[in-house]
Amino acid sequence: MKKTFLTVLAFSLAGSIANAQFWGFQPQPQDPSDPYTITAGETSMTIDAGRGAKIMSYKYGETEILSQRTFPNQFGSTFWTSPQVEWNWPPVQEYDSRKYTVEKNGDKLVMTSQLSEKLPFRIIKEFVPDSKEGIITINYTIKNEGEAAREVAPWEVTRVLNGGLIFFDAPVESISPAGLMPFTSEDGVCWLVPDENRENRKINADGKGWLAYADNGLLLVKKFTDLKGDLKPAPGESEIQVYINSGKTYIEIENQGAYTMLQPGETLTWTVVWKLMPLKTEAVPSRELAKQARPARKVSILGDSYSTFKGVNPDGYAPFYPDAHNDVKEESQTWWSLYNEAMGYTLEVNDSWGGTTICNTGYFHRNVAGSSFNSRLWKLGNPDIIFVFGGTNDAWANAPLGEYKYSDISKEDCNTLRPAIAYMLDALARIYPEATVYAILNSELKEEVNESFREICSHCGVQLIELHDIEKQNGHPSINGMKAICDQLLEAIK
């Protein structure tokens, strides 16, 4: 949040109202009926309709997670429109501090702002508790009540005490300005233990649709739409922002939605899901803490026998596991089950078929177009992550390599390995544009096969994970081999 700060501030209790007015806040008469409290399981949220429909409190049992500092703008959670350049500072009073009307529908609350004098928008906040899941869903709606089309983005600003741990999915090198705050990176997650620097600081980051804060034995997680593809933040803004006030006073953990053109009368609705829960581990950077906070991403697999397990793969497929001559007897012992457990992910589809090749040429040079990887590309559901674990049977069957080719690939071209790999990776990108694709390559394959994968994956922008030192029984990963695959994936994917 861009703010203008006084160089010297010397406040007295008697001057608090005057100071509030200086900062642009007009004190509102407090109606004792204005605060509303909703509950979801062990959590409770209090929203003050008389003061901008701010979230004043969010508790697990009797333990508070939000800042309760009484200085005019250091507490609770509020909502603004973005970009800030359109209103500068102070915040628009109709949205941030003035009275909202209230409608109650069972446990659900709907609060509606006054129409702003500065901007043509009306804000509607809908609070929906879910006691079974222990979550509170907030639907923020922005309505354009002006006479002209306007672009706008939603912006939630949540104030917490400086003393906890802030973290979210993002490469640390993507945070700007670089080096402004002491972020560290582990398992693809950015971690911030705030310091007591006597400067006001703010960073921008492109996250993955969630933001977390851990303190006082509790974990607060906010989940929202990830801004990717055509979804972009407002100019000069970002999906995730962290603002640290000078000294050890308070922090704002902020999240924004997509910049959207609204015609007169049109609305946009943006959803943020809040969850507050006891910590399962210490409030220090760790895979276990990231796992507790992360949304459960969905994993699909396109593979051969190395990724099979009876009862998991589609009907009619030929699974290898379990096998009498291999010690992997339980689904939980497979590489993909171990990986999902470590990361807190879920299995979407495991489209793995024993003995299958990527290209249409199988063992004994038979045409296997009906079972090849490229015949099964459309069966992976709606994944966030796709693992392609193949090439082993292509190598063992001595399938022809063919030539490197990246366009106008015909069915006949896919009788050879190199064009088939290129076709597969291109098709996966087109069919599942929101998913991240990783290619896994078995150990101990022919070098010409290895080099083919390296070249094509590099060309297609797909990360290739080349396995090594994989213990095998009956030609397939053992329990130790499965664990080694999982460990190497965890190491390679950051």
What do you see in this structure?
Mean pLDDT is 91; it is low at 1-30. The protein folds into 2 domains: 13-292, Distorted Sandwich (Beta-galactosidase, Chain A, domain 5), CATH 2.70.98; 298-492, 3-Layer(aba) Sandwich (Rossmann fold). The longest helix is centred in the last third of the chain and has 15 residues, at 417-431. Helices cover 15% and strands 32% of the residues. The two termini are 29 Å apart. A hairpin with an 8-residue loop joins strand 7 and strand 8. Helix 6 (417-431) packs parallel to helix 7 (447-460). By secondary structure, the protein is of the alpha+beta class. It is elongated. It has a 10-stranded antiparallel sheet with strand order 6-7-8-9-20-16-15-11-13-12, covered by helices on one side. Strands 5, 10, 14, 17, 18 and 19 form a 6-stranded antiparallel sheet that branches. A 5-stranded parallel sheet has the order 22-21-23-24-25, sandwiched between helices.
What does the secondary structure layout of this molecule look like, with pairings?
Layout (H helix, E strand, L loop, with lengths): L15 H7 L12 E6 L2 E6 L5 E7 L2 E2 L12 E6 L10 H4 L4 E5 L2 E5 L8 E10 L4 E10 L5 E12 L3 E5 L13 E4 L2 E4 L8 E5 L4 E6 L2 E6 L16 E5 L5 E7 L3 E3 L4 E12 L8 H7 L4 E6 L31 H9 L2 E7 L32 E5 L2 H5 L20 H15 L4 E6 L5 H14 L2 E4 L5 E2 L2 E2 L1 H14 L2
Parallel strand pairs: 21-22, 21-23, 23-24, 24-25
Antiparallel strand pairs: 1-2, 2-3, 3-4, 5-10, 6-7, 7-8, 8-9, 9-20, 10-18, 10-19, 11-13, 11-15, 12-13, 14-17, 15-16, 16-20, 17-18, 26-27
